[in-house]
Design a protein that fits this description.
Blueprint (H helix, E strand, L loop, with lengths): L1 H7 L1 E5 L3 H13 L3 E2 L5 E4 L6 H6 L6 E2 L6 H4 L1 H17 L12 E5 L3 H17 L9 E5 L8 E4 L2 H14 L4 E6 L6 E2 L2 E13 L6 E5 L5 E4 L11 H4 L3 H4 L7 H4 E3 L3 H5 L4 H21 L12 E11 L8 E9 L11 H15 L24 H6 L9 E3 L6 H23 L16
Parallel strand pairs: 1-2, 1-3, 3-4
Antiparallel strand pairs: 5-8, 6-7, 6-8, 9-10, 10-11, 10-12, 10-14, 11-16, 12-13, 14-15
Helix pairs in contact: 2-13, 5-12, 6-7
């Protein structure tokens, strides 16, 4: 029996990033978990997962490190739409959602000049009602599915943003966009703009069926621009603090450009700021998760899955005597762990160790039961103390959702039905085109 449990304390690792792969190997060693190809628990990039094995449902120990359905959380336009919808629904019932999560903005589909004209009218009306802060950019346009700073434009006027969007939208076929107010004035470190990459874990529980999300208590990165901020400049390196963008600057210095959240107080000379920001990030992510989960087609965690996610926040400078505004920019699946660099690499290892302790280790050696436990309050996944000891904010989880079925197997069967519907729809669209429908949707006809 002891030998059997030791064999179950294994995970397989398939990550393209050598940095993430080696950090995860170190984290697993700290937990006493072996790395073994073919293990039932798989930590991999989304495209490398054996989704067929998960859908087959024959392995009660199967666990994977990604959710198949999470576009409602990680696609910019979908998240903005669901948050707007949640706010409208709350207003109808008389409820007041006190947390403003995203910057003021618009979700738009751009296919022709008429669409651009409609957007122009919306932006002009918004600027009329709420005049922009002088001396700073006014708008940020982002393609919904873009990442790494691609198809992201900073503009000082309505015409600038429309001209920047026109080629990728009308010639490149990028339809779905989010256009938001530029957060101004931004808080600065040594005269440079920055943003915070926060890390949280969403995890399904095969024992009681509850899905939960927890924000890490400590290991969040502060990513600082290399070029000083002037406001009037069009230089992307002043405005876009993405790690992949900043490393292109010839004066990039990891010691100055990558910091930890708990170093923020000293960098800005504001004691207690990091704790305040952590609390505001907790509130914003709770709203984002609740909004995305209200539409299962956009975000539907399975009991057999967990995922480490990254969320980007920017801080609005409201003066030394007032707390800053804390604004969510986007949520990232498969966050780039190389942002920790060399100096903070030990923090990356600890983050992965804590994720294993929270979302993997409790489920390695016990098979999913035939029925979910009805005592969800006493389940392993509900323990704030366990989350806290694993390094996460344990006073309360960010978000929780009850199961929609009686067992992990039934949850998986329901997911397969939904995938089948989507797959048949996709096949209908591709009929006669010769384009192969891949992944779980490709199993729709089987």
């Amino acid at each position: 029996r002891r030998e059997g449990r030791r064999k179950l304390r294994q995970i397989s690792v398939q990550l393209v990033s050598a940095y993430a792969r080696e950090a995860l190997r170190e984290a697993a060693a700290l937990c006493g978990i072996a790395i073994e190809d073919g293990a039932s628990c798989q930590w991999a990039d989304f495209s490398s997962h054996d989704w067929d094995a998960l859908l087959e449902g024959s392995d009660p120990f199967r666990r994977v490190s990604c959710f198949y359905t999470r576009a409602g959380l990680v696609r910019k336009a979908m998240l903005a739409h669901y948050l707007q919808k949640r706010k409208r629904q709350a207003a109808k019932t008389g409820a007041n959602l006190e947390v403003d999560v995203l910057p003021v903005g618009f979700v738009v589909d751009i296919q022709d000049e008429e669409d651009l004209g409609s957007l122009r009218a919306q932006l002009l009306e918004s600027a009329r009602k709420s005049p922009p802060t002088p001396g700073h950019p006014v708008w940020v346009a982002k393609a919904s599915a873009s990442n790494r700073g691609e198809n992201l434009f900073i503009a000082h006027s309505v015409e600038q943003v429309l001209e920047a969007m026109r080629p990728p939208a009308l010639e490149g076929g990028i339809v779905e966009w989010v256009v938001q107010r530029y957060i101004a004035p931004p808080m600065l470190i040594e005269g440079r703009k920055f943003h915070i990459r926060a890390h949280f874990v969403a995890t399904g529980c095969p024992y009681c069926g509850t899905a939960r999300a927890w924000l890490h208590r400590k290991h969040h990165a502060v990513l600082v621009a290399t070029a000083p901020y002037s406001g009037a400049s069009q230089d992307r390196l002043e405005h876009l603090t993405n790690h992949c963008v900043q490393v292109q600057h010839p004066e990039y210095d990891e010691r100055r450009q990558i910091r930890a959240l708990d170093e923020l107080d000293g960098a800005l000379g504001r004691p207690g700021l990091a704790g305040l920001v952590l609390g505001r990030m907790q509130e914003a992510l709770a709203e984002a998760l609740a909004a995305a989960a209200a539409a299962p087609v956009g975000f539907a965690p399975l009991p057999q899955c967990f995922e480490l996610l990254g969320a980007d926040f920017t801080l609005e400078d409201r003066g030394a005597d007032r707390p800053p505004g804390v604004w969510l920019l986007e949520v990232n699946a498969g966050p780039d762990l190389e942002i920790f660099g060399t100096r903070l690499r030990h923090r990356c290892v600890e983050l992965l160790r804590d994720t294993l302790r929270l979302a993997v280790e409790p489920y390695l050696c016990e098979a999913a039961p035939s029925k979910f436990s009805s005592d969800t309050a006493d389940c392993t996944c509900a323990s704030g103390a366990a989350a806290s000891s694993a390094g996460f904010v344990g006073e309360r989880c960010l978000w929780a959702a009850a199961p929609r079925a009686a067992s992990a197997a039934e949850e998986l069967a329901g997911f397969k039905r939904r995938v089948g519907i989507a797959g048949r729809w996709a096949r209908a669209l591709h009929e006669g085109s010769g384009v192969v429908v891949r992944g779980p949707q490709g199993m729709a006809s089987q």
